[in-house]
């Protein structure tokens, strides 16, 4: 239950607390009042409600998810928690179970979770190895239309870099992506001709007017340097559309001088970086014994170079991450703990709101008159209160209306989870 039920009609929420960086102000947390009328923030005063210092955020942007994989864990658990185990398990489940009906039911379930938690925009990756590409992109277009008034949706195709070639099915997949208004995506890892494959990928994207989104170096092997290849290719080809790179785990395992020179290239190329700390903490350095490395990329060092750094959910209840619920407050809480954001400046809140919106081209979040009243309000009055509890009683306001935050019951998916 939400900690407060707001009155209907024009209302002024007094004595709220917000990160100053989201208001264009210096410092950490600031006090403010917000008035809501006819679905928007406004200058006109309404019925006053004392919010007692409750923290407010603009509704969140989750820029790296996998809606097509979501919630398959009960029928396809990772056998050993490893990255290879996740790859094998997902591949088998995809080939056997990912019909249009299966995808639509699981994707809608996940979106209802995200909506209840306060997310307004999502970019998902879609496994697009033929013939799955034909199925998944059709389903995505239907889901995007059905959800257009609640969550803005984007999709990027996902194939291994080994599948990128003129004589493979990838050009057809790229055409499907273009027809759907999507983003061209691939997983980049060290193969002998990775440079040529990245450049071909960028050519295919440019020819279709598409942005690019890469999974990059999702390993703690320091010799994995496809991030460097991508940055150099973007610079040398003059690729102008936005480019996003996610994971970058190997960067944290490299010698400081080598990592620094790669990050300089990332900054020069203007790449957007998204870190996925929960999934990477789950998969990376899993071994016989205690893990010693976190897997998170060098977010502080990238941010210091002016790189646009964001955080996102990544996988949800699938072999790549057994947990999660597309809850960006959980992502913010865990990223703060895992990445030690708490003593590193006062503007990290942008990495869950403003930065991902800019990277993806979603409407920028604003807490100012004229903006849509899309808000997440927590009883917590400061950071330690916010991160100490899951904020299960938060208020979510969309277009000025306080929504029902009841989460869907996992039992809804039971009929899809029966093993064959």
UniProtKB/TrEMBL annotation:
Position of the signal peptide: none
InterPro entries: Amidohydro_3, Metal-dep_hydrolase_composite, Metal_Hydrolase, Metallo-hydrolase_Enzymes
Pfam families, A to Z: Amidohydro_3
SUPFAM superfamilies: Metallo-dependent hydrolases (SSF51556)
EC number of this enzyme: 3.5.4.1
Domain annotation Amidohydrolase: ranges: 47-96, 198-398
GO MF entry, a single one: cytosine deaminase activity
Keyword entries, A-Z: Hydrolase
Keyword tRNA processing: no
Gene3D superfamilies the UniProt entry points to: Metal-dependent hydrolases, Urease, subunit C, domain 1
Keyword presence, Hydrolase: yes
Protein name: Cytosine deaminase
């Amino acid at each position: 239950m939400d900690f407060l039920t707001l009155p209907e009609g024009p209302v002024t929420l007094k004595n709220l607390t917000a990160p100053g960086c989201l208001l264009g102000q210096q410092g950490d947390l600031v006090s403010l009042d917000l008035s809501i009328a006819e679905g928007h923030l406004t200058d006109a005063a309404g019925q006053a409600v004392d919010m007692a210092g409750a923290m407010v955020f603009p509704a969140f942007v989750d820029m790296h998810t996998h809606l097509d994989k979501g919630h398959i864990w009960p029928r396809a658990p990772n056998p050993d928690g490893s990255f290879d185990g996740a790859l094998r398990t997902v591949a088998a489940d995809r080939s056997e179970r990912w019909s249009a009906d299966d995808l639509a039911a699981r994707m809608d379930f996940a979106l209802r979770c995200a909506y209840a938690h306060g997310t307004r925009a999502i970019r998902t990756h879609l496994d697009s190895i033929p013939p799955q590409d034909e199925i998944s992109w059709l389903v995505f277009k239907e889901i995007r239309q059905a959800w257009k008034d609640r969550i803005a949706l984007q999709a990027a195709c996902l194939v291994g870099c080994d599948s990128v070639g003129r004589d493979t099915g990838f050009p057809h997949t790229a055409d499907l992506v273009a027809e759907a208004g999507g983003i061209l995506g691939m997983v980049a890892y060290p193969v002998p001709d990775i440079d040529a494959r990245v450049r071909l990928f960028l050519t295919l994207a440019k020819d279709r007017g598409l942005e690019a989104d890469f999974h990059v170096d999702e390993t703690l092997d320091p010799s994995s340097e496809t991030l460097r290849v991508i940055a150099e290719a973007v610079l040398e080809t003059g690729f102008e559309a936005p480019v996003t790179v996610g994971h970058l785990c190997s960067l944290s395992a490299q010698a400081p001088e080598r990592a620094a020179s790669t990050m300089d290239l990332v900054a020069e190329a203007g790449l957007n970086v998204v870190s996925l700390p929960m999934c990477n903490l789950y998969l990376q350095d899993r071994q016989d014994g205690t893990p010693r490395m976190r897997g998170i990329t060098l977010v502080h060092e990238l941010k210091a170079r002016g790189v646009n750094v964001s955080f996102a959910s990544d996988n949800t209840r699938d072999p790549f991450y057994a947990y999660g619920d597309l809850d960006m407050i959980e992502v913010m809480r865990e990223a703060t703990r895992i990445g030690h954001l708490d003593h590193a400046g006062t503007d990290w809140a942008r990495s869950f709101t403003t930065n991902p919106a800019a990277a993806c081209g979603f409407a920028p979040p604003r807490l100012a008159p004229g903006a849509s009243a899309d808000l997440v309000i927590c009883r917590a009055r400061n950071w330690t209160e916010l991160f100490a509890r899951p904020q299960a009683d938060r208020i979510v306001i969309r277009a000025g209306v306080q929504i029902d935050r009841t989460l869907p019951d996992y039992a809804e998916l039971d009929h899809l989870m029966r093993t064959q």
